[in-house]
Design a protein that fits this description.
Elements: E1 2-6, E2 10-17, E3 31-37, H1 39-49, E4 53-57, E5 59-60, H2 64-75, E6 78-79, E7 84-85, E8 90-99, E9 105-112, H3 118-121, E10 131-135, H4 139-150, E11 156-161, E12 177-180, H5 182-187, H6 193-201, E13 209-213, E14 219-222, E15 228-231, H7 245-258, H8 263-278
Parallel strand pairs: 1-4, 1-10, 2-8, 4-6, 5-7, 10-11, 11-12, 12-13
Antiparallel strand pairs: 2-3, 8-9, 13-14, 14-15
Helix pairs in contact: 1-7, 7-8
The structure holds adenosine-5'-diphosphate (ADP).
Adenosine-5'-diphosphate (ADP) binds near residues 215, 246 and 275.
Length: about 280
Amino acid sequence: MRILAVGVATIDIVNTVDRYPVEDEEVRALDQRVSLGGNATNTLVVLSRLGHHCSWAGAIADDSGSRQILAQFLQHGVETRYHTRHADTATPTSYITLSRQGGSRTIVHYRHLPEFGWQDFSRIEIDLFDWVHFEGRNIADLEKMMVALKARPEIVCSLEVEKAREGIEALFPLARLLLFSRAYARHRGFFDAASLLGSIRRQAPAGATLVCAWGDQGAWGMDGQGELFHAPAFPPQRVVDTVGAGDVFNAGVIDGLAAGGVLPEVLTQACRLAGEKCGRYGV
Ligand code: ADP
């Protein structure tokens, strides 16, 4: 499959600490890793590993971080010719503190970079792709991109809905695959994935596949006919890093559906992949 993902690419600086510090405390990190990050970026890197031809489209700054990002994409076999570069900006950076004791990951994100907009997207030769995956952000422009794709039914369009953003629900009828997070479900007042998916089904057209991951409880999915499935999580021997588990899971779902898999098996495979990721550092 030729897959294009549109989203933010960040530099992630992940410090592992014994326990989360209190304000004004100084602690020493047990381990540090610096890596390429961003939701669609992580998903794309995994899809590339799984053998797909992957391209990334997004905004990029004009600093050393941006050169690092492009080099890392290259290293992961992801093509980046559709990036838009902005002078006098800064590479988005996520400072992540992983607590061994609590198992939590606390993220401070710095961003000073314009969004990748409709004008940027309209320059992409969209015919070159079989699948286009979007991060649910910059809603007004994203709607134009997804409407343009709607006129091309041979190209599959998927949307990751991680955060509740104003107007994001208007995009639901435009995607063939919707990937929801637990955070979004909770924001909408749902305490389980099945209730969220049942409610979304009434907004998205029949035919769209709906998926919602739920941490160590695995994931739920609803196929185009409204049938609900659940796949349990596959816990590794020791959970060491859950940062990006959702992005890896999304890659598993895209990979499975792209191969023509049926939803229950696709969910199981994606949970297996994400569970394996939780047992190791990085994606
Ligand atoms: P996010 O990274 O977006 O918070 P989730 O926490 O919902 O995403 O996790 C996505 C998927 O990763 C889950 O559906 C599950 O398959 C897997 N996963 C997450 N946490 C664990 C865990 N502790 N053990 C095993 N699998 C996990």
